[in-house]
Amino acid sequence: MTRSMTAFARHEEQTEQGDLTWEVRSVNHRYLEVSLRLDERFRPLEMQIRKLFADKLARGKVDAVLRYKVPEQQEISLEMDLSLARSVIENCDALAMMTTRPAPIDMLKVLQWPGVLKADTLDQDSLNKTVLASLNHAIDELITTRETEGAALQKMIEQRCDDINTIAIETRQRMPEILAQHRERLLTRVEELKVNLDPERLEQELVLLAQKSDVAEELDRLQNHVTEVQNVLQRDEQVGRRLDFLMQELNREANTLASKSINTDTTQNSVELKVLIEQMREQIQNIE
User: Fold this and answer.
1) Do both 170 and 274 map to the same domain?
2) Backbone phi, psi, residue 202, to 5°
3) Helices then strands, each counted (H, E), the chain
4) Interhelix angle for 46-56 vs 124-193, to 10°?
5) Cα dihedral angle (192, 194, 199, 205), rounded to 10 degrees?
6) What's the pLDDT at 3?
7) Which of 255, 260, 263, 178 is nearest to 213 (CA)?
8) Could you give the number of structural domains in the chain?
9) Which of 30, 125, 215, 276 is least surrounded, with the fewest CB atoms within 10 Å of its CB?
10) Within this chain, do residues 167 and 140 fall inside the same structural domain, yes or no?
11) What φ, ψ does residue 54 adopt, rounded to 5°?
12) Would you say residue 278 lies in a domain?
């Protein structure tokens, strides 16, 4: 199923240990890039969180925010890490001995040192499990949104493919008429100029010109690429890079058709093809 890389998901969990809210946004990106904003108490989970994203997503720039609210009625007692506090004070004393004007140690700042004071009443292991489970739900919601957006993109691309096929069929059907008209114009021009040319040599030149103007192979490749785009869209895998490559191939054939054009109608068709291909290319940049 085709997935877009642009999506948003929000998942909330209300527990006895507090309220958790995950907000996850993703936009298009060449690779998977995850940016996290976490409460410090959940920082040890960072590697597990990143793995969850890597297991379920292949591409996209992802911004994930975890908001945590402690229950208002919960009494939180503070526990002091005496070993860490002692180490902080000893280091302050050591620095004081290195100067002639030592400042007194501010005990409040010692208490504010990261890790010296800890809230001890929460079951952190249980809370961590809830955080990861909640994130799983948020990622699943994100994927669902991506698939919904992807379905819309797929429909648009398939419509453009149909339009390209229509132009290719019309161009193929008109080519014999266009070549015949071009041949007549050249013969008329030769007669007007009253130039004596060897009929056999003139016929050879006309045949050569017709060969140079023949776009049957380009139309074949164009339609083959369109068929491949339609097939790729049906695959249940990451298809963005493959589709991007096919857009390059389609654009190459459209350019060749333009360079071989000998008629305003085929020139206009080439322009229309380029517009359709560019519209698809812009949208494919957002497909995972």
Assistant:
1) yes
2) -65, -45
3) 8, 6
4) 40
5) -60
6) 87
7) 260
8) 3
9) 125
10) no
11) -65, -35
12) yes
Q: What is the pLDDT of residue 189?
A: 65
Percent of the chain scoring above 90 in pLDDT:
48
Summarize pLDDT for 147-206 with one digit per residue, the tens.
999 999 999 999 999 999 999 999 888 877 777 766 676 666 666 666 666 666 656 666
Q: Which residues contact 30 (CB under 8 A, 6 or more apart)?
A: 59
Quote the pLDDT of residue 77: 60
Give yes or no: residues 174 and 135 share one domain.
no
Residue pair 276/163 in contact (Cβ under 8 Å)? The answer is yes
Cα dihedral sign, 88-92-93-97: positive
Sorted by sequence, the CB contacts under 8 Å of residue 105 that are 6+ apart come out as 89, 92, 93, 96
The confidence score (pLDDT) of residue 104 equals 83
Q: Which domain holds residue 100?
A: 78-117
The model scores a pTM over 0.70: no
Exposure string for 131-164, b = 16+ CB within 10 A, e = fewer:
beebbeebbebbbebbbebbeebbeebbebbebb
Rounded-to-integer distance, Cα 143 and Cα 35, Å: 17
Residues 30 and 92 in one domain: no
If asked whether residues 173 and 237 sit together in one domain, one would say yes
- In angstroms, the CA 277 to CA 288 distance is 18
Look up the CATH number of the domain holding residue 197.
1.20.140
Q: For 68, phi and psi rounded to 5 degrees? A: -130, 130
List the chain residues with pLDDT less than 50.
none
